[in-house]
Amino acid sequence: MTEIDEDSRVQKLPTGIPSFDVIAKGGLPEHRTTLLSGTAGSGKTVFAVQFLAAGIIDYGQHGVFVTFEESASDIRQNMRSFGWDLEAWERDGRLAVVDASPDPHVETVESGPFDLDALLARVGHAVRKVGAQRVAVDSLGAIFSQFSDQSIVRRELFRIAWALKSMGVTALLTAERTLDYGPVARFGVEEFIADNVMILRNVLEDESRRRTVEILKFRGTDHQKGQFPFTIVADAGLVVIPLSGMQLRQRSSNLRISSGNAELDSMCGGGFFRDSVILVSGATGTGKTLTVTEFMKGGADVGERCLLLAFEESHEQLFRNASGWGVDFERMERDGLLRVVCDYPEVAGLEDWLLSIQRIVQEFRPKRVALDSLSALERVGTIKAFREFVISLTSFIKHQEITGLFTATTPSLMGGTSITEGHISTLTDSIVLLRYVEMFGEMKRGITVLKMRGSVHDKDIRELTIDQHGMHLGRPFKNVTGILAGAPLYVSPADLERAWTHFDAQLGASGGKHPRRRASDMPGAD
Amino acid sequence: MADSNPVPGDAGARHDSAPNKFLLQLYVAGRTPRTELAVANLNALCEDELAGRYQLEIIDVLEHPERAEEAKILATPTLIKQLPPPLRRIIGDLSNRERVLLGLQVRSSADNPVSDREAP
User: Fold this and answer.
1) What distance lies between CA A407 and its chain's CA centroid?
2) What is the DSSP letter of A43?
3) ipTM score here?
4) Is there a contact between A126 and B61 (Cβ–Cβ < 8 Å)?
5) How far apart are CA A255 and CA A274, in angstroms?
6) What is the pLDDT along chain A (526 residues), one digit of tens a residue?
7) Which of A176, A312, A388, A463 is catalytic?
8) Cβ-based neighbour number of residue A205 at 10 Å
9) Considering only CA atoms, which of A400, A294, A412 is closest in space to residue A357?
10) Pairing state between β B78-83 and B88-91
11) CB contact set of B103 (below 8 Å; sequence gap of 6+)
């Protein structure tokens, strides 16, 4: 491998944890010791084994695992569920496990000063035996619990770290901490024996667990700052979800695709853009699922595969709805052009949803993805986690050259915005609003294209009707103001005419506020 | 300790009888002053307390790391009492004789058993 001195660039070893290597700008610094600190159950052991597994599987670098806490046989068994067969690697001479876990059957008495040279000799022996380049030690805190003389253990930890460096291996040392936001590690020395420090957190926020990884310091080399969410999945181990670094490379396409509704296409100036994300927002019953259904149909009509992720309605309900609007989901499914995934949002955390959506997309390779509704996923995690989820999903979809259509449910029937909108509106390329409009004792539906990035679009609020053939767009509500605010106000044609002449420019820009203010002559306004 | 096989503890037991024999192993790391001290302390103790009924093996973990691996030794010096059961470990330079005797479960004097077992 590469020789390094203090002046040259630090080489990094990939950890095999997807996206972590992006944050770490390559992986763990080579020939250095890195401390990984975290509370109980934060994923330290999985991280440590994954680091070795990546070396063994992907880079032909052998490893040594030193366990102070769990017995070697427990580790071998626990890691099998991630698809890592430690025993096979041990047989092949690619891995050595140094079992330094306490033996509960043997009583130990201390009589006078000692050192941990035997442990060092064992680690050194294991490193030589398999020709290891990676060493993981799990965990430092458990060494303290095996000996009563803590000052000796402190001194010995420094010697161990020094010895690992002199062996020329890249070492990952784990340590416990008692609080997710507190001292780096329990015994106060762990952070000083390593060159680099990383922290895993497992924080309870609003009744849901949120795992994050943070690189605190990488001596002499660069890394991304801040906490990054991750999750632990059964057959892959840790998966980190990076937020930055993904968004800036999005392509944008000038190709137009049909929304599945010719009238909506013309409102959008000729259809949605491919590689764009469209948000459809409206109260319950305004036609969001219909918009989704037509969007799927529009794809299937031109032979594109479509993926529908439904979090609010069952498979049967969706298919019945679609046939009620003249869309044959069953045929689309038979033709392999439609896949519908229905599940309760609560069955998984947001990080897990993101991963499973990514997996489905990579496997099915759709050209269109619809998610009905994003708002249903809001209740799974915290607002922060939800926001990260939306950002990650949006950028993922754009990277795949897929058109995404998300729906958001507004909490109030008339007007209003949802939390979903607040977090996603700046990320989406287009926003379609569906609103109820109360007119003369009758509930009508209205539709407007609020935003269409990179294109002219129809700015009218048009009436929307639904029948057995789907969605129809009617005439603009020319004589009603305040629809979006949730307080529709009928304006007489004469007033409207006067307003047009007096406030031509302003009216076009900011809806129907001006005529109203003028009529009531409210004091203190502006 | 859960040990169903009591060691004959009568004071008049024959010194060379197999059940009474102590099989000891001392793991050390190189010929350091600490090693020398531990060996000296152990030799003196054995001659005083276990004369004629012990067997001692000294293992250097720097030369035989695989032996340390098999026995799961972490610290040096470590004294292991293989026999009589139960297995016991004493770590350190063995300078505290009372602690060593406690660990070995050897009588500290002729008529006062340190062992937690009842004299018959």
Assistant:
1) 18
2) S
3) 0.76
4) no
5) 6
6) 444 444 457 888 999 887 788 888 888 999 999 999 998 888 999 999 999 999 999 999 999 999 998 899 999 999 998 999 999 999 999 999 999 988 888 888 888 899 999 999 999 999 999 999 999 999 888 888 888 888 888 888 899 999 999 999 999 999 988 888 878 887 777 778 888 999 999 888 767 778 889 998 888 888 888 888 888 887 778 888 765 445 445 556 678 899 999 999 999 888 998 888 899 988 888 899 999 999 999 999 999 999 999 998 899 999 999 999 999 999 999 999 999 999 888 888 888 888 889 889 989 999 999 999 888 888 887 777 788 788 888 878 877 788 999 998 887 666 666 656 666 777 788 889 898 887 777 888 989 888 887 788 888 889 999 998 899 998 888 777 777 777 777 777 777 677 667 655 554 555 444 444 443 444 443 3
7) A312
8) 12
9) A400
10) antiparallel
11) A107, A109, A111, B79, B81, B88, B89, B90
Looking at the complex, report in whole angstroms how far the Cα of residue A37 sits from the nearest Cα belonging to chain B.
Answer: 23
Task: Look at the pTM and tell me if it is higher than 0.80.
Answer: no
CA distances from A369 to A107, A185, A402, A405 (A): 62, 44, 7, 6
**Which of B28, B69, B83 should be substituted to probe chain A, the one whose Cβ sees the most A Cβ atoms within 10 Å?**
B69
Residues of B with CB under 8 A from a CB of A: 1, 27, 29-30, 34, 38, 41, 61-62, 65-66, 68-69, 72-78, 86-97, 99-100, 102-103
Task: Locate A525 and state its tokens.
Answer: 């306004």
CB A364 within 8 A of CB A402: no
What is the number of CB-based contacts under 8 A between chain A and chain B?
106
The conformational region for residue B75 under phi > 0 = left, psi -120 to 50 = alpha, else beta, is beta
Give the number of C-alpha atoms closer than 13 A to the C-alpha of residue A94, restricted to the C-beta side: 17
d(CA A465, CA A474): 7
Question: Which of A67, A106, A114 should we substitute to test contact with B (largest number of B Cβ atoms within 10 Å)?
Answer: A114
Residue A429 DSSP label: S
Pairing verdict, β A33-38 and A196-205: parallel
d(CA A236, CA A249): 26
Tell me the C-alpha distance between B6 and A88, whole Å. 42
CA distances from A283 to A165, A223, A411 (A): 61, 44, 7
DSSP string, A83-137: T--HHHHHHTTSEEEEE----TTSEEEE-S--B-HHHHHHHHHHHHHHTEEEEEE
